[in-house]
Amino acid sequence: MSSILTNNGAMVALQTMKSINKNMGQVQSEISTGKSVGTARDNAAVWAISKTMESDVKGFKGISDSLALGSSTIAVARKAAETVTDLLTDIKGKVVAAQEANVDRSKIQTDIAALTDQIASVVGAAQFNGLNLLKGTESVDVLSSLDRSSGGAVTSSNISVARQDLSFDAGSYGTGTNLNANAVATMGGVVNTAITETLTLSGTVATGDVQRLKIGDDTVSFTVGATATTDAAADGLAAAINAAGLKGITAAFTTGGIVTLSSTRKFEDTALVFTGSATPAYTGDAALEARAETVTFSTSAPVSEGDGYRVTIGTQDFSYVAGPNESFEDVAKGLKIAIDGGALADIETNVKQDSSTGAWTLQVDNDGASLAFTATGAAGGKATGGLAGLDKVDVTTKEKASAALANIEALISTSIDAAAQFGSSQKRIDIQADFISSLSDSLKAGIGSLVDANMEEASARLQALQVQQQLATQSLSIANQAPQNILSLFR
């Protein structure tokens, strides 16, 4: 049945035309935008995923900027620490030269002062955008990553960079927890009295017996004469010791076969070995103790940042306050540097580790009048700068030059450790920056695979749709001509 009111053919052709035009619009949108999913209407799930990933890419761009800033800041600090190490090495050369007797120590001291001022200048200028990693002890966090969990929660991660204090700051002694038990002084005074040891000869002595006593690296001997008694042997050995002229060692005879040895040798014990006749023998300790008072530090207690230890000699206080990750070795060496930089002319110091207990000890020797000697400790202070005492290095005398040599070694070690720490931190940050760059590229590729249009496919579809559009137009034209054919029935 034909009808002039309802043209079914035209309606079918029109619906086909609408579908083709819709697809044509979608393909043209893909070609113009380059995306197959440009809005949430196109594919809500894929669009949501892509937007989440795009936000992460934006975040990683900010992280890359943070890592670049952190790397630059550490690079400045590392270069400064390396420069300080070079300058300290130059100072060491001056200190070594000052060990000679026929040099002008005052001129060497002037050079050391100039190099010290330069180190202070380098440390003060080692800042990037106002941040100086060579002053203070607080760590600096560099934003390094954004971590997204399976549930969608996002947390940030940081790379912690420890400051390496290379300032001359003496710090401040705290008033917190009492730490006196961690630093025990041997006596209440440091004196110049010789250390003595008594040897007693016992047994039968015969004429011709050779009495030998090894004192440190030196051996003294006495051959018993016609008077073969223990007193004669002991008296002769004492006289032989005095005649040998051993540095810091004297001997005295007392009736009863007693030889009293006196030692003013500093810092090192002097071994005693008797190798005389098989029958008589000397009894007594196997060593003369070093003439020095000591502060022995704990082998079990920890050292925390802000823990301060103070040695009082006479009326002067010398303090060292520990920084992060330090040990009693650092405390002992810090106190030595502080004491050596003081105004006590007759005081010498040394740091050693007990071979049997592992305890670190600070030895203090006095060549002058007796002085009070105490050691205390307290928590809650402000850490001493890593190069504290450098500005007090003095080589104007032989004794001070000798002390400066040991101290400059400790300071060089501090600056080397600082540069190494900065180098490790910078390397880690650079590795993380490379990873973040690669991760961002991977995320961008993943987003592209989700939402980017396949341009080859879109081109092919466009050509096909154009042909379909032309055919649909022709079909609609034919369908619209159908009512005209009805007129022929009425002719």
Estimated radius of gyration: 44 Å
**Helical coverage, percent range:** 40-55%
CATH architecture identity of the largest domain: Up-down Bundle
Strand order of the largest sheet: 5-15-19-18
The major pleated sheet works out as: 4 strands, antiparallel
Number of domains: 4
Order of helices and strands: HHHEEEEEEEEEHEEEEEEEEHEEEHH
CATH superfamily label of the largest domain: f41 fragment of flagellin, N-terminal domain
Low-confidence region ranges: none
Strand tally, please? 20
Distance between the first and last residues' Cα: 19 Å
What is the CATH topology of the largest domain?
f41 fragment of flagellin, N-terminal domain
CATH level 1 name of the largest domain: Mainly Alpha
Total helical segments: 7
Proportion of residues in β-strands: 15-25%
Provide mean pLDDT, rounded: 87
Please, what is the oligomeric state?
single chain
Which short descriptors sum up this protein?
alpha+beta; f41 fragment of flagellin, N-terminal domain; 22% strand; 491 residues; 4 domains; rod-shaped; 4-stranded antiparallel β-sheet
What would a concise description of this structure say?
By secondary structure, the protein is α+β, with helices and mostly antiparallel strands.
